[in-house]
Amino acid sequence: MAVQKKVVVIGAGFSGMAAATSLAQQGFRVTLLEKHDRPGGRARSFTAQGFTFDMGPSWYWMPDVFEKYFNKFNKTTADFYALQRLDPSYTIIFGEDDFMPIPAQLTQVYSLFESLEPGSSQRLKTFLDQAAYKYEVGINKLVYKPGRSVTEFLDWQLLLDVFRLDVFQSMHQHVRKYFRHEKIIKLMEFPVLFLGALPQNTPALYSLMNYADIALGTWYPRGGMYKIVEGMEALAKEQGVDFCYNQEVTSFNSEGGNINQVITATNTFDTDIVVAGADYHHVEEKLLLPAQRSYSEAYWQKRVMAPSSLIFYLGINKRLENLQHHNLFFDEDFEPHAREIYENPKWPTNPLFYVSAPSQTDPTVAPAGCENLFVLIPVAPDLEDNETTREKYYDLVMQRLERLTKQSIREHVIFKRSYAHQDFISDYHAFKGNAYGLANTLMQTAILKPALHSKKVKNLYYTGQLTVPGPGVPPSLISGQVVAHEIGLAYS
Ligand SMILES: Cc1cc2nc3c(=O)[nH]c(=O)nc-3n(C[C@H](O)[C@H](O)[C@H](O)COP(=O)(O)OP(=O)(O)OC[C@H]3O[C@@H](n4cnc5c(N)ncnc54)[C@H](O)[C@@H]3O)c2cc1C
Prior knowledge:
By secondary structure, this protein is of the alpha/beta class.
């Protein structure tokens, strides 16, 4: 690049940091503006009374995606954090005295399947072989595509792949082609929940998530998920990214179809290019003028959003029994809960929930003799969120948690903080208070997602969980790299 172009990136989430770092590596002069006083976005952390809580992501899946990211800069994850594979990967609680730990060893997973449904271990092998192929094509070819136009997918090998990838069959059908046992079906459909949609509406391409789960495993960065954020921030700074915290972007100045200045409450930043890693809807609807918006409000209202969450961060003054690092409470039927998320949005009657107890693995996240708990209930976006409702669900979940793990917990809670829709909105300007962005339904995949490049403002690009490839930490990392590549092509 003859003259270094200036880029302003909005938002220091995974996608914004990945975009900023990749752009700096290409020679752009990058300034990153973040509303909060630290990086991480939905993956921030906080400490209270000696506990360190990861606020968002807790599952480290697809370790190869993280490795590939750091390798781009001649680094490895080990330069920034120490990874540990969890065994069991997680436990599913189906009811009282009905706990199913999922072993890390593949041979043991085969034995588990065989014990539940004779003959199913062979079918699991076939299922995983195909899922491995989908992972290879999906992660190496499809998700790094910018989703500009359908022509990106017009290569014969890829077209052939698309048919072999079961894009037009649902995960619901796909899993039932192989397995009948109810517990196996629940186990095989669970990873789809990360994609924010129902197995019925998720293309069977995403059985690649089963490969990620069962074959690649569940990992944990010692010290917590925030270690990844710290590693990414350090790498970005090494590459020359200038981080500006407490800088909430409020508007833009434009000239000749381009944004030339980014405005915050206290500063004005001149720029040649803008990458918005903040929530897409917020940037479109609140920061741009109507004529600059690529999508109408009606378009947004028709999108299928991934769920929001009601979360409790709890500090417990004793060690707990019968809990692993990751615990899925599937002791209620998912169908009615799913309907209350997607079809008839309301606060759920008998929700499934998830409990993470990272202090089971990592003593640094809780004071000695204490337990760190993260309790999450997936709920529909756009619900009325108030203290009374949160407390009602606290009681409901704690009652089940105490009964199923057979111990008193509530009287040992010495720290409690809740987090739901209103917090997602005030912290991240999240559309409808969503937690995970847009659901990965077939009609919201690749070119059918909100585009990486603005249709109206020439030098405005988007990245993050509301554009390609979708929600989750690995996709957000990829999204940042893809947009940086696109900008590199356009401006070199
Ligand atoms: C509760 C929860 C649990 C999750 N669990 C997992 C998990 O276990 N594994 C997994 O892989 N994924 C998980 N995810 C999903 C994953 O965390 C997200 O997909 C990912 O972090 C999104 O990154 P992002 O960069 O797109 O957005 P964000 O992290 O939201 O980053 C956007 C940034 O923009 C900033 N911003 C917003 N508006 C402005 C403005 N006007 N000016 C300046 N800055 C602004 C925000 O403060 C934020 O820092 C979870 C998410 C949540 C919420």
